[in-house]
Amino acid sequence: MSVEDSCRLCKDNLRIKGTLSNTKKIFPSKKVANEKSVNERLMALGLTLSNDNSRSGRICRSCFRLVVRIEEDFAVFRRWQEAEEASFSTVEERLPGEEVSLAISGVQRSCPVSGEKRAREHTPSETTHYVNKKRCTEQPTATPTPKLSRPTAEMPVRRSLTEVIIHYPSNPTGDKMECQANIAGIVENITKENWRTAANLIVRHKELFGRLKENILKVIEDESKLLCNPYKGFMLWRSSAADLKAFTFANLLSDLERMSPFMFSIFSKITKRSPHSTCAAAAIALRGREPRLSAFAYCVDSVLMYGGAKKDVFKRLSKLGISTSHACALAKQKELKLLAASEDIKSTQCRQEKMPIVCDFEN
């Protein structure tokens, strides 16, 4: 294996399937304008590499990204250092004659203290209260350095160059296009099939994410139309007395997850995967689109009727899509009572038809 086939820093093999990939030259023969070479960047950080034929002149992309991160963090370190030097000069001006030592950049600085003051003994005062009062003077402290955080809603700074070559049947040589800085990372990660990173960069791109919103809304619109179709068997359409008696949140949650997975994931994320909150939010939102999706509203009506709610309560909640009108609630309660009465009659008839069987062992 050649010397140039390995990274200068991490010693990893750079030749994949016979070709050098994901590598960058340390000492480039042709320098790009307004861009520092790898050697110049490392020299600025304090690492000098020799251009020797016995050593590799390439580094991998991982090490190059690490160098870029060190440069960014080193700028923060410089600001910390300047703040410490400023605080040292402030302390030196406030306390002349006292010993002050601060370690800045590995150098120990100290101010001499006179021998007479060092040889003095502390004279205690009459009361400890007086001592505490004298010693409660404010001690000089360094100015707090503000916490620096990297912005997450902006596109990261990119120093590499990304190019795309498209080969057409009419143009075998291909058209070479240079990607702009705000889309270069997206193109690179899509090519490498790093879908998570590519999606994160797409969200940060304002224009591209604006176009993507239209497609997201189209998916939500299609799933809403499917749920509002009365022939698809969605559970909120089943508002008969028998169906309401068998109504459960588990079945409604199952229908939402099966028929509208994308919209279900949105409601589930908003409610932190609370099944009851997810079902209630989806039912109220869909009833604003299609008032006939009233199974959940009739269940709320039963709770309100059981609690003795007045007509004005139904009037206000029906405007919000939470319940039906008071007249519809009364009509549905009558249906439920008739269903319960018919079931009681059937159950009594079954009990009367079932006669006890007596075994006569004597005959």
Protein model, in words:
This protein is mainly alpha-helical and 363 residues long. Among the domains are: 3-72, His-Me finger endonuclease fold (3-Layer(aba) Sandwich), CATH 3.40.1800; 163-204, no CATH class; 224-352, no CATH class. 52% of the residues lie in helices and 8% in strands. It has 14 helices and 8 strands. The chain has helices spanning 38-45, 61-94, 115-119, 128-135, 181-191, 195-204, 206-227, 241-245, 249-259, 261-270, 275-289, 295-306, 311-319, 326-353, and strands spanning 15-16, 19-20, 23-25, 58-60, 102-104, 107-109, 163-168, 171-178. The strands form 4 sheets. It has a two-stranded antiparallel ribbon with strand order 1-2. The protein has a two-stranded antiparallel ribbon with strand order 3-4. Strands 5-6 form a two-stranded antiparallel sheet. A hairpin with a 2-residue loop joins strand 7 (163-168) and strand 8. Helix 1 packs parallel to helix 2. The longest helix is centred in the first third of the chain and has 34 residues, at 61-94. It is elongated. The termini are far apart. The model is unreliable at 97-114, 128-140, 145-151 and 352-363 (pLDDT under 50).
